[in-house]
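Why do we care about 3D structure at all? Because function follows from shape, and shape follows, mostly, from sequence. That is the central idea of this module. The next example makes it concrete: a single protein chain, its amino acid sequence, and then its structure expressed as tokens.
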Amino acid sequence: HVQLVESGGGLVQPGGSLRLSCAASGYTFNTYGWFRQAPGKEREGVAVILNRDGVTFVDDSVEGRFTISRDSAKNTVYLQMNSLKPEDTAVYYCVSGTNDWGQGTQVTVS
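And the structure:
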């Protein structure tokens, strides 16, 4: 299993930026992704970074605004979020390829 701890959420004005971090421990050689869940909505995938070659994918809703990256030396995955919109408000979760989930971090754009 992998233990995941997210950080970096907070309150930001529309158009602002935040960088979320996901610190991994345990079996860290994985693909990682970020999901989010807004109040009253289903959890949705936001971005993923593949283990084998670092190829990344982002959802159309955040294309051009969000970037996923990782620092393998620090066992940390990041989600850089720019040009934030109120509809980005959600709890953001980090997930590993072993289907281990972090506790989530709240992002509020208002």
